[in-house]
């Protein structure tokens, strides 16, 4: 089989590169993305490897680029992304890149530091401007008629002793009085400053408590927010002025201001001095605004120039770093002139890899060609399944369960059909399927533009990555919707019903419960495609009929799916030449499944073919037996109940003998599955110990599991398992298969259950929501219908398409992982992870966006 059905054949190769050509050759291999290198220095510390200094230099360049990117994003400057991937620079170009990044970083940091210093000066001048304005209001209160309030406030700051000593003091004034013979200790003074608005209440309380009420605080809010020069945030502040008396209180007030990070500014006492200072402050603010504008323009020009090349710089640095990181995995020969590497490569691509190595050698100017030797190994190769944009999502579903063992059958090609089909059995509705298919088709048509956006929205990335799955699920759901004749819970009468009404109109209108007889009212030919629309109006037995129909097809699809899974195991056994497993596992498993569950499916078809309402007894509808009861009686060897008069117990001649034989044969398969393989392995080991035979025996016959053989280029070389472990493993496997056959068959009934639930929810939404709007008349009815339709559409998309679709998707995933893949798929391999620049750059871009 081709690589579509199995993973690629892999080869372990040894690569010899000249030191001067190694960088260019690895660069070419990175562009190719088909080589997975092995670490030949696993015990060497990362800081002791040969190219650790180059990796550090790349890390430093990446740090500088991230700093530039952060500054560019802060200014909202768009970064040019052409979508092209430049080639990895030569090693000598690293010096030029480092110099460019160093110059840009230093220039930008210098500009930022200057801008921050200017903004800090601007903030201080702005705060001082507000202080001068607000404190002028405070002082104007004293001069404009508030002398009594000010005098009482100031007198409250003066102790009784001072009041007694200065009884002839006269009117009290704020601030320092003119020099006189009085003691200056008793003269009130003030400080002014700015504090964050949210710190003002605790600041005021602390002043009151620490100074025991001997201070007077006035504050006013600054209406416009101020910019913090450190982080650029907008902060709200308030101006305050504190009046106190004495050096002791002055020291205490300043310490409290320092503790609350309040900024104190000098405020002259004299009005003329204040006005003069305010004019000087305004002049300096205007000058600072001019300088700040020029600084921001220069910074913007630097960032715009850097934004044009930033994406390409990131790609170049990441490629250089990836190359040196890969070179650290290589070994040096004794002469220190040759690098030796080991790598896994796909067998079909060896020539392509050799051409890439030659190109690298020519670019480097080396005269010694590289050498690529294929090695023999007993290690398990990595699993590599080639995918394209269509098959990638389906392969991801399989790999989420477990990466396939090397050269194991790949379920992904079959999943492309079975996954959307089983989903559609549960989701079958022409309308809902059309919505899903149109959404998937829109993503497919716009995939180039949507992929170029590179959003970090995880939910959207999941939807976009599975666009082909969504489209196929929608298309298949439209098909099953036509089969069910279901569109938004209604039916399409395309070909006309094949049932006839034998009652007159009055009888139909007066009687709530009427039945149409299949014998008299059915034309005898089925509806050409899907379900007859007459069942849409069958209120009493519509669900009963749909239950019987969907339950049976669920079992039929489930058994066929499981039988197909067992047949897939035959392909694995024949490919790996595992004769014991083929004879003593595959054949008993297939016989067990066919004789019990496939026989039950055959009984369903026999019942559909032989029994009908138009047939006379013993093949009329009254004589049709229950398949479930028949199957239970068969397994338990029960005697069937006496039939109705003129009916037969069995559906065909010899049924009892056939059923007993089938059950006995199925039961006989169980000990074969349980004991045959371990006993043969034990016998083969005894013979091998007594008389060694020239030539290697099959791994399967000695207790191993061959994953390679002649096809895989070397299978695993494992130690022999203990016989007790083999017996235990085989017992678990047999019990799991026998019991799982029953539980897995019942598990497929979820197809019926979810299909029924989906149809009923759609009918409830139609009956309880949309039909209300359809019953309204007149212009008001049109308004009501518009609102009701919008509500119904939201519920349909949100509940029936999204939520029910997700539920059906998860159930389909479980049916494939557990019921289907457990029959043949081990999933014990490890993925092929080639050295690829595309993957490295994509992962690096995603990590940068997350940060």
UniProtKB/TrEMBL annotation:
Transmembrane segments: 416-444, 464-484, 553-571, 586-606, 657-676, 751-773, 779-803
Protein name: V-type proton ATPase subunit a
Region (Disordered): 698-720
Cross-referenced InterPro entries: V-ATPase_116kDa_su, V-type_ATPase_116kDa_su_euka
GO molecular function, one term: proton-transporting ATPase activity, rotational mechanism
Gly residues bias locations: 705-715
Membrane disposition: Multi-pass membrane protein
Subcellular location: Membrane
GO terms under biological process: vacuolar acidification
Coiled-coil segments: 51-128
Function: Essential component of the vacuolar proton pump (V-ATPase), a multimeric enzyme that catalyzes the translocation of protons across the membranes. Required for assembly and activity of the V-ATPase.
Annotated organism of origin: Drosophila guanche
One Gene Ontology CC term in the entry: vacuolar proton-transporting V-type ATPase, V0 domain
KW Nucleotide-binding (keyword) present: no
Superkingdom of the organism of origin: Eukaryota
Main location class: membrane
UniProt xrefs under Pfam families: V_ATPase_I
Similarity-based family: Belongs to the V-ATPase 116 kDa subunit family.
UniProt keyword terms in alphabetical order: Coiled coil, Hydrogen ion transport, Ion transport, Membrane, Transmembrane, Transmembrane helix, Transport
């Amino acid at each position: 089989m081709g690589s579509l059905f199995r993973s690629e054949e892999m080869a372990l190769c040894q690569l010899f590169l000249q030191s001067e050509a190694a960088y260019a050759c690895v660069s070419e291999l990175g562009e190719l993305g088909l080589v997975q290198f092995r670490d030949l220095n696993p015990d060497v510390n990362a800081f002791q490897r040969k190219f650790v200094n180059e990796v550090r230099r790349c890390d430093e360049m990446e740090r500088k680029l991230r700093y530039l990117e952060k500054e560019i994003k802060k200014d909202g400057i768009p970064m040019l992304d052409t979508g092209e991937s430049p080639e990895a620079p030569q090693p000598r170009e690293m010096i030029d890149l480092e110099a460019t990044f160093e110059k840009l970083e230093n220039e930008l940091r210098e500009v930022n530091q200057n801008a921050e210093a200017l903004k800090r000066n601007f903030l201080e001048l702005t705060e001082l401007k507000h202080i001068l304005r607000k404190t002028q209001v405070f002082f104007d209160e004293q001069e404009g008629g508030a002398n009594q309030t000010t005098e009482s406030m100031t007198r409250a700051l003066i102790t009784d002793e001072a009041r007694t000593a200065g009884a002839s003091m006269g009117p009290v004034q704020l601030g320092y009085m003119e020099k006189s013979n009085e003691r200056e200790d008793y003269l009130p003074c003030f400080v002014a400053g700015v504090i964050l608005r949210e710190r003002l209440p605790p600041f005021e309380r602390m002043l009151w408590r620490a100074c025991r009420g001997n201070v007077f605080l006035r504050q006013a809010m600054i209406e416009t927010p101020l910019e913090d020069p450190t982080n650029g945030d907008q902060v709200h502040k308030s101006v305050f002025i504190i009046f106190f008396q004495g050096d002791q209180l002055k020291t205490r007030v300043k310490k409290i201001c320092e503790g609350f990070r309040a900024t104190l500014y000098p405020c002259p006492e004299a009005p003329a001095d204040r006005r003069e200072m305010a004019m000087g402050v305004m002049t300096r603010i205007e000058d600072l605004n001019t300088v700040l504008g020029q600084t921001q323009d220069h910074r913007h020009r630097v960032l715009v120039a850097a934004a044009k090349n930033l994406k390409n710089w990131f790609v170049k640095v990441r490629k250089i770093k990836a190359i040196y990181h890969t070179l650290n995995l290589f070994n040096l020969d004794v002469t220190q002139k040759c690098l030796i590497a080991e790598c896994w490569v796909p067998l079909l691509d060896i020539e392509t890899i050799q051409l890439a190595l030659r190109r690298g050698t020519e670019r480097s100017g080396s005269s010694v060609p590289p050498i690529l030797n294929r090695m023999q190994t007993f290690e398990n190769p990595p699993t590599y399944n080639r995918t394209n944009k269509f098959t990638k999502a389906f392969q991801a579903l399989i790999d989420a369960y477990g990466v396939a063992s090397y050269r194991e059958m790949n379920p992904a090609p079959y999943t492309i059909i079975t996954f959307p089909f089983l989903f559609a059995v549960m989701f079958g509705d022409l309308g809902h399927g059309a919505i899903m298919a149109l959404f998937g088709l829109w993503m497919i048509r716009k995939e180039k533009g949507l992929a170029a956006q590179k959003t970090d929205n995880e939910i959207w990335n999941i939807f976009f990555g599975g666009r082909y799955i969504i489209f196929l699920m929608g298309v298949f759901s439209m098909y099953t919707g036509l089969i069910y004749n279901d569109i938004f819970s209604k039916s399409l009468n395309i070909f006309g019903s094949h049932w006839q009404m034998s009652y007159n109109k009055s009888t139909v209108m007066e009687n709530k419960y009427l039945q149409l007889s299949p014998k008299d009212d059915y034309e005898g030919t089925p509806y050409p495609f899907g379900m007859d629309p007459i069942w849409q109006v069958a209120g009493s037995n519509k669900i009963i009929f749909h239950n019987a129909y969907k339950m049976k097809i669920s079992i039929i699809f489930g058994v066929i799916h499981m039988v197909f899974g067992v047949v897939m195991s035959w392909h694995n056994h024949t490919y790996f030449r595992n004769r014991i497993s083929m004879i003593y596992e595959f054949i008993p498993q297939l016989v067990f499944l066919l004789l019990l569950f496939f026989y039950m499916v055959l009984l369903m078809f026999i019942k559909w073919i032989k029994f009908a309402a138009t047939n006379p007894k013993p093949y009329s509808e009254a004589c049709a037996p229950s398949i479930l009861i028949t199957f239970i009686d068969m397994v338990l060897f029960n005697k069937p109940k006496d039939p109705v008069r003129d009916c037969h117990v069995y559906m065909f001649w010899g049924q009892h003998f056939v059923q007993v034989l089938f059950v006995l044969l199925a039961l006989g398969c169980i000990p074969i599955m349980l004991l045959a393989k371990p006993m043969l392995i034990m016998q083969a080991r005894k013979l091998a110990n007594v008389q060694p035979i020239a030539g290697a025996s099959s791994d399967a016959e000695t207790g191993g599991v061959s994953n390679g053989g002649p096809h895989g280029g070397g299978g695993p070389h494992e130690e022999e398992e203990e016989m007790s472990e083999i017996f235990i493993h085989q017992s678990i496997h047999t019990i799991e298969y026998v019991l799982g056959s029953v539980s897995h068959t019942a598990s497929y009934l979820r197809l019926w259950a979810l299909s029924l639930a989906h149809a009923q929810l759609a009918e409830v939404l139609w009956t309880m929501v949309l039909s209300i709007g359809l019953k309204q008349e007149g212009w008001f009815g049109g308004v009501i219908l518009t609102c009701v339709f919008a509500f119904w559409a939201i519920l349909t998309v949100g509940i029936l398409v999204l939520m029910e679709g997700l539920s059906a998707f998860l159930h389909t995933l479980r049916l494939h992982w557990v019921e289907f893949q457990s029959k043949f798929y081990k999933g014990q391999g490890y993925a092929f992870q080639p050295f690829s620049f595309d993957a490295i750059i994509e992962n690096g871009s995603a990590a940068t966006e997350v940060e």
